[in-house]
Prior knowledge:
By secondary structure, the chain is an alpha/beta fold. It folds into three domains: 1-36; 66-159 and 290-312, Response regulator (Rossmann fold, 3-Layer(aba) Sandwich); 162-288 and 315-334, Response regulator (Rossmann fold, 3-Layer(aba) Sandwich). The protein contains twelve helices and twelve strands. The longest helix has 16 residues, at 77-92.
Amino acid sequence: MSEPVRVTIYDVARESGVSPATVSRALSQPQKVHPHTLALVLAVVDRLGYRRNAFARSAGSPRTGTIAMVVPDITNPYYSEAIHGAERRAQAADIGLVLANTGEDPARERAVLERLIGRVDGFVLTSSRLSDAEVTALSDRASVVLLNRHVEGISCSLVDQDQGSQRIITHLAALGHTRMAYAGGPSSSWVRHQRWNALSGSAQSHELEIRQLGPFRPSLEDGPAAAEEVLRAGATAVVAHNDLLAIGIIRHVQGNGLAVPADLSVVGYDDMFVSRFCTPPLTTLGGQYESAAHHGVEMLVEGRRNQLVVLPSSLAIRESTGPAPGATPCTSSSLRP
Length: 337
């Protein structure tokens, strides 16, 4: 038996002939809505059986009209897209968005959350560095949605890593690379482990060698250290945790007289805008990060629990990858995805 279709704030707005923001205001701040409009909206709410979101209904916890988005590094361009998507969806619901930066520090993330619990209506945790147990415990005290992270029992919105990582390996294998490296991000990063599992599994299926190196900070500054480890490993191709680390690797390799991709092919993750303008332009796996954040805030606003949204990823092939030194590239038809 199929589940009944959930009525959303958009359905109420459409039936009422008003904006979603007006519906949200009618339910949370009725004194600010014209009596005629208020009566109309409430009638449609009753007729459609619309249920307000969980954090708005929680007994003994008056609404603040604000949610918090917690990010590890506000200077990372990846999070700019996510913040924009979250901000647009929060604005549509007439909800304020507070931004908190944790500096890639789990202890700082814990402190930020403790300060904000009770002061906001819920949390959007982006690439949280907390353990699964800590995230689950937080969800018992507050409404929580995860971005770029998955924890069982908590609503999550993310971009596919598995199939995309497999496409990276297939691409490098087609170029004749048999010895690769993965420059992994922080050890507390969930996505680091997801990517490694997919990359190593795909490499094994192609009978190729790949080594995990690091951990490294996902920054330009850690590029030199990552590049040195990659070169010591004898890899002809490296997949970096994100585009910033990949660009840092490229700059260090070129500064030491080697060429990309002639001596080393480099792949990143996230398809940041800077990846198109580095030299050479970066091959990278991207996705709909703004949409993922939009979905995440929507799940929080609508009170949807234990839901998973996975959006597709796409591999942008640019000039930072090329044939392995001395190798003859394979045809794509001879490779398994």
